[in-house]
Amino acid sequence: MNVFVIVFDSVGIGAAPDAAAYGDAGAATLPNCAAAVGGLDLPTLQAMGLGNIPAILPGGLPIAGVPPTETPTASWGALQELSQGKDTTTGHWEIAGLLIEQGFHVFPPDYPSFPEDLIAAFTARTGRDILGNRAASGTAIIEALGAEHQQSGAWIVYTSADSVIQIAAHEAIIPLEELYAGCRVMRKLCDPLRVGRVIARPFVGSGPGRFKRTPNRRDFSLIPPEPLILDHLQAHGIRTVTVGKLDDVFAHRGIDHSEHVTNNQAAQDVVLAMAAQDETQFVFVNLIDFDMLYGHRRDPKGYAAALENSDAFLAELLPRLGPDDCVMITADHGNDPTFRGTDHTREYVPLLLYRPGTPGLPLGIRHGFFDIAQTVATLFNVPPMPRGLSVITPNVA
After folding, report:
1. Strands 155-159 and 164-170, how do they pair?
2. pTM metric for this prediction
3. How confident is the model at residue 161 (pLDDT cuts 50, 70, 90)?
4. Distance CA 372, CA 326 (A)
């Protein structure tokens, strides 16, 4: 039995009840993206019930081109995040079973963003000075400081609205292994601050206008404070697999096998191959392109094209599933490509649960992403997780 949880990174479906507290009132990634491009063509997701979800949300907006269907092939609903935050780590950890009641530390946006003692310790241990020390778009700060970095060899260190420290370096100036080692130093230094991630951001190019980030990004995450669904399944003899960047997000814990790929197409190819395996395994997948390439860059056309590509992937995946397999589609937060700024948006996220031969049912609004972890535990017939309500009926021996 294969159970796939596939996270469409940042594909929110409408402003959460507390969106205004995050400055995100009016954000609605899927509906606003669809409206901006004149409608989406997502026949597989439409058949699964994606277009049925907005009607259950307070003030929900229709998804142009994806109307409701009378008999969805999947069970459908929405998830409301209960943890504080709207970032990758918070969303994925809650999907995996955790409630973060005290949000991760977020640095102030203006120079200097980082505490003086933190930077002093980092420069002393790495032997390099830093540039930046403020919140910025990654592509913009590389463009602005890349030439100075090439001349000085100093790290480019910056943050965002999330709980992150990002460290950028030209691959010809600071080799990848040195960049990763520097990120590990920063990871240890900022653990006491409860910083969610330290992110390595390598780039190449001969100068301004020609700089380009490479696929060699790595995330160095805070270690989860308690066992999550990956640990729980592993402890009960269930094989666990991550695809995409999730090995980094979960600090490489609870994972039997990782396919660390860096884009949607590579992740989707891995999943299609795994669907043919006659294994009992949990496969946790992140499709990063929606967020990384199109949400942060406020590109609704690119976002729409990526959605349509993943819809075609699902059309290929679903017929390959065995009779006991399950696919759940969800997201970790929003990133409305039509919204102001370049940051994530606090939104409800969709939930679609497909099991071959099982009719789709309405799941309503689920309070807590951790209902997914509880559902995974039910599917594998292992003891329940501490939080969440399963959306399916447990098997009774």
Report:
1. antiparallel
2. 0.91
3. confident
4. 12
